[in-house]
Design a protein that fits this description.
With about 325 residues, the chain is mainly α. Helix content is about 75%, strand content about 0%. The protein is built from 14 helices and two strands, in the order αββααααααααααααα. The radius of gyration is 19 Å and the shape is globular.
Length: about 325
């Protein structure tokens, strides 16, 4: 896979205020003059991105078999930053202007540190299936924050679908927890907010630079914190290396936090937001499948039903018009 086209392309990716996801700036909802072969290849890349993201929670659960939560997050971020920095250096990508570093700090705080840490802490006591259903609200949460950030006024259909999706997940978490919200649920809801903030700010920055560079520079910006943090965490938390723990760490660092985002943004640029977003709807359901196949978890009937309900709500928000 070559990254040079992503690094040099000047087409930005902006936040769609209806969906909270990203789309090409100035290019409508689907790129012009894209051949059938290019569109098929773009669909493949976007699908690979969704698969990469859907494996994040099972890989995190594997990583927790050998690493403490703080060690796993810090080492994951440091490794991803080294990979991203190497790509940026090899492609001679210019350093962003000072005016962009504040936004990159928000992306780093939300996507590089906040979301991985909070979801990892949640997965110490929560199943990956439960976490996947709760975090299935992320597109809706991002859409809400994006609307607030841009001052947009989505339609009543949008708000109704968003509230219905939120109600379904809240009911699921309360029912699964026996009538009370657990600490794991609190971590997951916090993860939704910080990640949505990072995605929203990242979408704004992606109007002026390719999306993978936004993620790459956010990772590099976090390295002065993630590297010392990894050394400190590893000195306090015991490490028991195994095939599962090493594979889980490598996947969340290289697959989820960098390469998955590269193919996702490249695929989205090729096929446009409507088609790419339809693929992303499958992510929570894919995570449920991985939780069974890779972790041997037993699903309650409520998990896939709630995930399907959230999927419908997200689909409705994407079709809403303000």
């Amino acid at each position: 896979m070559r990254l040079d086209s992503s690094a040099t392309a000047q087409t930005g990716i902006a936040v769609n205020t209806q969906t909270g996801l990203a789309t090409e700036a100035g290019g409508g909802t689907e790129p012009d003059r894209v051949s059938g072969a290019e569109r098929r290849f773009g669909t493949l890349q976007a699908a690979l991105g969704v698969i990469a993201f859907s494996l994040t929670f099972p890989a995190t659960a594997w990583g927790l078999e050998g690493f403490g939560p703080w060690s796993l997050v810090a080492v994951r971020s440091a490794l991803a930053a080294v990979i991203a920095g190497g790509c940026l250096l090899a492609l001679r990508v210019p350093v962003p202007g000072r005016r962009h570093w504040g936004g990159l700090a928000v992306v780093a705080a939300g996507v590089v540190f906040g979301y991985p840490l909070l979801t990892t802490l949640a997965l110490e006591t929560s199943s990956t299936a439960h976490a996947a259903v709760v975090v299935g609200l992320l597109p809706l949460t991002t859409a809400l924050l994006s609307a607030l950030r841009t001052g947009a006024r989505p339609s009543r259909m949008f708000w109704g679908a968003a509230l219905a999706g939120a109600a379904a997940v809240i009911a699921f978490t309360v029912w699964q927890s026996g009538g009370a919200v657990t600490s794991a649920d609190a971590y997951l809801f916090g993860a939704l907010l910080v990640c949505a903030a990072g995605y929203t700010e990242g979408g704004r920055l992606a109007r002026v630079m390719p999306g993978w560079q936004v993620v790459g520079w956010a990772l590099v910006l976090s390295l002065p914190l993630s590297l010392p943090g990894a050394l400190v965490a590893l000195s306090y938390e015991p490490v028991q290396l195994s095939a599962h723990s090493v594979a889980g760490l490598l996947w969340v660092a290289a697959g989820s936090q960098f390469l998955g985002l590269v193919v996702w943004y490249r695929g989205m640029a090729a096929i446009g937001i409507p088609r790419a977003s339809q693929l992303q709807l499958a992510q929570p359901l894919l995570t449920l499948v991985w939780s069974v196949l890779l972790l041997g978890e037993q699903l309650t009937p409520a998990a896939p039903l709630t995930a399907a309900a959230v999927l419908v709500c997200i689909a409705l928000t994407q079709r809403a018009r303000g």
